[in-house]
Each structure stands twice: as structure tokens, then as C-alpha cells.
Specification:
This protein is mainly α. Helix content is 78%, strand content 0%. It has 2 domains: 124 residues, no CATH class; 82 residues, Orthogonal Bundle (Arc Repressor Mutant, subunit A). It has 10 helices and no strands. The protein is elongated and about 60 Å long. The two termini are 15 Å apart. The relative contact order is 0.13.
Length: 217
């Protein structure tokens, strides 16, 4: 376990990255709670592995990787639960599968449309995009990542990133016009209080790990 000074140094750097990392997680998962859980896990790994002299650029990339992989894992877990629910619904309603089959992979689904009709703000619009479009849109237009960086992280071609971003922008603009919105407001934003709360929870988990390790010796 690192000393207090080392931990404090890591925490200060994480605080600077927190808004971007939260948005990265939120690009993949569908709720703030899931995104918060993802960044907590990434910070826990960072704070337990941080060593004096580690270059900040290396730590930033490591955190981004941990957040993205953690978010993907959470998304798969949530999707698995959703599919189980859909299977149960299909058994009760044979027409459910046919309705689901009519949804476009790169468009806005029925459930998302209902959400957008009831919640008129930017996050609802972006959440209504399909997974592959939403992730690219948030990374490129919300976070401001480079096309090459996104392509590397998603393991797709740069041209694919650009085409997906364009399709996402078209869908977002169309939905904004339907709702009478002029521009997408700042989305997935968190403040210092959120970051402090996350780090405090990470500290508690680190303390619990340390206590557990001490008892097992």
C-alpha cells in the first residue's frame, strides 16, 4: 500500500481527469449509476497500482483503458439481463420478437422514442442512439477525443468512426428539431462534489481491502 503522499498525488490527478472519464463510461452504459460504478473500479485499480514517477500521460491512458473496458463489461452484463427479460416476455407474448426485429441497429428504438417523448433534453436524445452510434458520438463530439484515438480504442477504421459520427449527428439533429431544441446541451456533466464522493468511496474500499489483508495474515 502506498503512503499518504503518493495517494494524494494520484487523487489530485484523477480529479482533473474525472469529468472526461465519467463521460467515457457514460458513452457506453445507460445510467449515471453504472458510470459511477465503472469509474470507481478504475480509480481503485489506479490508486492501488500508482507508483511515484509514473508519467501522467501513461496513467491517463491506463485510466481510460480501465474505464472503457469496465464500461463494456458492465454493458454486456446489463445486456445479458435485458435479453433474459426479453426472452421471458417473448414466451408470454409471441409477437414481441417480431416487434424487436423491426428495430434498426443504427437508429432509434421504440423504447428510446418513448423516453425521448417524455424527457426532452440532450442526454435522452443521445441515449436513444444505438450503441455503436452513441459511443462514437460521445467520444468525438462530447468528450472531444481524436478520430485516431477513438478508432484505436474501438478497433475500427477511422473512416468508420467518421461515418458513424455523421449518422449520429443526423439522428440527433432530427430529434432535436422534433422536440423544438436549438442545440444539444452539455451532457453527462459531473462536478467536483461527484468526484470527491467517488474518491471517498474508493478510499473506503481500499481501507476495507487493507483491513481484510491484515486479518488474513
Amino acid at each position: 500500500m502506498q503512503d499518504a503522499t503518493t495517494i494524494h498525488t494520484a487523487e489530485k490527478y484523477i480529479q482533473r481527469l474525472h469529468p472526461r472519464l465519467f463521460q467515457l463510461a457514460r458513452a457506453v452504459v445507460y445510467s449515471d449509476a453504472e458510470a459511477t460504478s465503472v469509474v470507481q473500479g478504475a480509480y481503485l485499480k489506479a490508486l492501488t497500482q500508482w507508483r511515484p514517477g509514473t508519467r501522467q500521460k501513461e496513467l491517463a491512458r491506463s485510466l481510460e483503458d480501465h474505464v472503457f473496458l469496465g464500461a463494456m463489461h458492465e454493458r454486456v452484463r446489463s445486456r445479458s439481463q435485458l435479453l433474459q427479460l426479453l426472452d421471458a416476455a417473448a414466451d408470454a407474448d409471441p409477437g414481441a420478437d417480431a416487434e424487436m426485429a423491426n428495430l434498426e441497429d443504427d437508429g432509434l428504438g421504440t423504447t428510446q422514442r418513448q423516453l425521448l417523448d417524455s424527457v426532452k433534453h440532450g442526454e435522452a436524445i443521445v441515449d436513444g442512439l444505438s450503441d455503436m452510434l452513441r459511443v462514437v458520438f460521445v467520444m468525438l463530439d462530447v468528450i472531444g477525443m481524436d478520430v485516431a484515438e477513438i478508432a484505436s480504442m474501438l478497433r475500427i477504421k477511422e473512416a468508420t468512426v467518421e461515418s458513424r459520427a455523421q449518422r449520429a449527428r443526423t439522428l440527433v439533429r432530427a430529434r432535436m428539431e422534433e422536440l423544438g431544441l436549438q442545440e444539444v446541451p452539455e451532457i453527462y456533466r459531473v462536478g467536483e462534489a461527484h468526484c470527491r464522493a467517488v474518491i471517498e468511496q474508493v478510499r473506503e474500499r481500499m481501507a476495507a481491502r487493507l483491513a481484510s489483508g491484515s486479518r488474513s495474515q
